[in-house]
Design brief:
mainly beta; 2 domains; 3-stranded antiparallel sheet; two-stranded antiparallel sheet; 1 helix; elongated; disordered N terminus
Length: 120
């Protein structure tokens, strides 16, 4: 019996964010060689759909968070726009209120810098 070896050229699609002046302006799925070809311009940075809060369920996180339109790319990480002026960016690239959110349904009130309970 002869053994036949097949050479499969596996294509792996990855997510990439196009960054202009530290802001994400586009996110696409493409092969690395397509990005390298320059077909879609420059400024592409790989992002991981499974990374959130600088954690990845199957291993090493990639760049803090999955990139979204309008996100900032800084410190080799993606993070969302700041929701309120008083919130600070955590070491895991997530925005945190000055005080932790209580259990239950609450909304942040920036003028008072407090959580307000949602009453139905």
């Amino acid at each position: 019996m002869d053994c036949i070896w097949l050479n499969y050229n596996l294509r792996i699609n990855m997510h990439f964010a196009q960054v202009v002046d530290k802001k994400v302006v586009n996110v696409i799925v493409a092969e690395q060689d397509v990005i390298d070809s320059g077909m879609f311009g420059t400024g592409w940075v790989q992002t991981s759909y499974n990374t959130h809060g600088n954690k990845h369920p199957n291993g090493t996180p990639l760049r803090g968070n999955y990139a979204g339109l309008g996100y900032t790319y800084d410190q080799d990480a993606f993070y969302s726009p700041q929701p309120y002026p008083s919130w600070a960016l955590s070491k895991d690239f997530l925005w945190e209120a000055p005080t932790p959110q209580p259990e239950g349904m609450y909304t942040w009130d920036e003028p008072t810098l407090n959580w307000v309970e949602n009453v139905h």
